[in-house]
Amino acid sequence: MFTSDNLKSRVLELFNDDSSKDELILDIFQYQCRNNPLLRSFVDKTGRNQNPTAINELSFLPISFFKSETIKTGSWVEERIFQSSGTTGTNTSKHFVNDLGWYHTIAQKIFQDHVCQLGDVLIVGLLPNYLERGNSSLVNMVKNFMDQSDQKPAFYLNDFEGIMHLLQAQKLANNKTILFGVSYALLDLAATNVWDDPQLTIIETGGMKGRRKEMVRSELHAEINKGFPSSPIYSEYGMTELLSQAYAKGNEFNQSKTMEVFITELNDPFYEQQPGKTGRINIIDLANIDTCAFISTDDLGRKLTDDTFQVLGRIDNSLFRGCNLLYTS
After folding, report:
1. How many percent of the chain have pLDDT more than 70?
2. How far apart are the first and last CA of the chain?
3. In whole angstroms, what is the distance from residue 176 CA to residue 324 CA?
4. Is the dihedral of CA 43, 95, 281, 209 positive or negative?
5. Could you point out which of 21, 95, 169, 290 has its C-alpha 20 to 30 Å from the C-alpha of 66?
6. Closest by Cα among 107, 97, 103 to 291
7. 95: which strand partners?
């Protein structure tokens, strides 16, 4: 009999050896169908299999359920509720988190797999709108990274002078810095400052929040690069509904060990698109053991290889969410 703790141990093993990933995916699906009434009901009503024997038989719960339902696998009292930013007048998503330590462990392992080791870098956060909310999974993750680096919190709202003073001190000391920033704030910072420091890495998390026009990722990075010409620029793909993240240096995201991305045809949620074809992004997030690991998003994308994918923007007629960039064909 599967348990949450047993499955979490197997998820952590993926960071050393992911050869059993497909088997684990099927086991988690069966575990959640047995212990998550919402997923079980969705699978039954769509006529799908509760005990699939192949990955292409899986069902993905529409992400909109995180706005209307309390999604839990099993019975437990949440330690934290993460909430999406949304926009004025919209219903926001809520992710009930059973164990913050589990979230921190997964996020840290993914970051160190794809970006750099924590501990020898200063983490800085330029995340004004997320900070103002106070229940952001992104801020919680970045704060934990700061804690792991044994530093004081370094979050900034709109104090560009303060952040540039900090970056100057880091450069003079020849220290490595990672700046997490929401897109519109990074553009504002780059438009008013030119800073040449190859020891500074920028991670944009998306999000114009109505402050600027949406733009494709390559255009966004080009604009940021004008202010930070020698800094590597990464993108982070994450959302309230996921405990895992993906990172891209350029325009191709790398799946983390705890994620599997499927692209399905827009008008047929059960038809998987071929690599290179655009469709709906469906995500298996194996870190979501206590909620739902199988999510059909409202994002457009395409799979490039077994391990890489592109995020192209929002699907028409779905609610605008600030963490995504405009889709262009």
Report:
1. 93
2. 47
3. 28
4. positive
5. 21
6. 97
7. 82
pLDDT by residue (tens digit) across 236-284? 999 999 999 999 998 899 999 999 999 999 988 889 999 999 999 999 9
Residue reference for tokens 């077994």: 306
Nearest alpha carbon to residue 85 among 286, 322, 315? 322
Which residues in 241-252 are b (16+ Cβ under 10 Å) and which e?
bbbbbbbbbeee
Cα distance between residue 80 and residue 95, in whole Å? 8
β-strands 200-204, 233-237 pairing:
parallel
Alpha-carbon distance of 240 to 95, in angstroms, equals 6
d(CA 293, CA 284): 5
Q: What is the dihedral of CA 19, 29, 304, 313, to 10 degrees?
A: -150
Antiparallel, parallel or unpaired: β 253-254 and 308-314: antiparallel
Please give the Cα distance from 182 to 289 (Å, whole number): 28
- E-strand ranges in the chain read 61-62, 80-83, 94-97, 121-126, 155-156, 176-181, 200-204, 233-237, 246-248, 253-254, 259-265, 268-272, 278-285, 294-303, 308-314
| C-beta neighbour count of 30 within 10 angstroms | 15
d(CA 229, CA 226): 6
Burial status of residue 111 (CB atoms within 10 A of its CB: 0-12, 13-18, 19 or more):
buried
Structure tokens at 232: 């590597």
